[in-house]
Design goal:
Protein Transport Mog1p, Chain A
Length: about 230
């Protein structure tokens, strides 16, 4: 009887343990499912919040960068025609021979206008007379943003410091100098650059005669600037 009672007690305890263990497993399973759903809902909520933020973000930065990269349209105006300051007849008189029709150039930055004359093919010589004019209103819209007088002064100082046959000229406009192979001159709101080449027999003779012809051409042009 004692053995039978002990056996029944053990079986009863085993059934209770199994019941408790199964209940614990079931509770753990329910908790795992609940936690998984909670994490999934949180992740989904975070993703939706992120997408919503991106969708509603103002494109101010992008539109701002586009506005900054858009080139500014400036109005360029010219009041002087360089080919009127040195005409074809003037170039032929300087070159002592026939010249082709003028070639006109338009410079971009800073905006300027140029006029070039070259010897005709039947002239048996190779000479050129060139002039370029910049106006203060266009210079101020260029790379440096300097008006004519400041632009001229800055470049004059730079050319003078190179020591390359720099020579101050007197009586030409407001200021003028010879440098390299050009005359650079300032008169009012205008900056001029003039050159004449192909003169002389070569070497030092050509350098001297090119310089002489260049100064003659510059004197003529500056005298016509209003």
């Amino acid at each position: 009887m004692e053995k039978f009672a002990l056996k029944n007690h053990r079986q009863s305890m085993a059934r209770r343990f199994f019941h408790v263990d199964a209940s614990l497993l079931f509770l753990m399973f329910i908790m795992l499912i609940t936690m998984g759903c909670g994490n999934s809902e949180q992740s989904s909520s975070q993703e939706k919040a992120s997408e919503s933020a991106m969708a509603t973000k103002e494109p101010s930065d992008q539109s701002g960068s586009q506005a900054e990269s858009t080139p500014v349209v400036r109005e360029t105006t010219f009041s002087i025609d360089p080919c009127a300051l040195i005409t074809k007849a003037d170039a032929e008189a300087l070159a002592a021979g026939p010249m082709n029709e003028p070639l006109q150039d338009h410079l971009e930055d800073p905006a300027g206008k140029g006029c070039r004359y070259f010897s005709a093919k039947d002239s048996n010589q190779s000479r050129a007379v060139e002039i370029t004019v910049w106006e203060s209103n266009n210079l101020k819209q260029g790379l440096y943003g300097w008006p004519a007088d400041k632009h001229f002064a800055r470049f004059k100082a730079g050319h003078k410091n190179t020591g390359k046959n720099f020579e101050q000229l007197q009586g030409l406009g407001d200021d003028a100098y010879f440098w390299g192979s050009h005359v650079h001159a300032l008169k009012g709101p205008y900056v001029l650059m003039v050159s004449a080449r192909g003169f002389g027999s070569g070497g030092a003779d050509s350098d001297a005669k090119n310089k002489e012809s260049t100064i003659k051409a510059a004197t003529l042009a500056i005298g016509r600037v209003p």
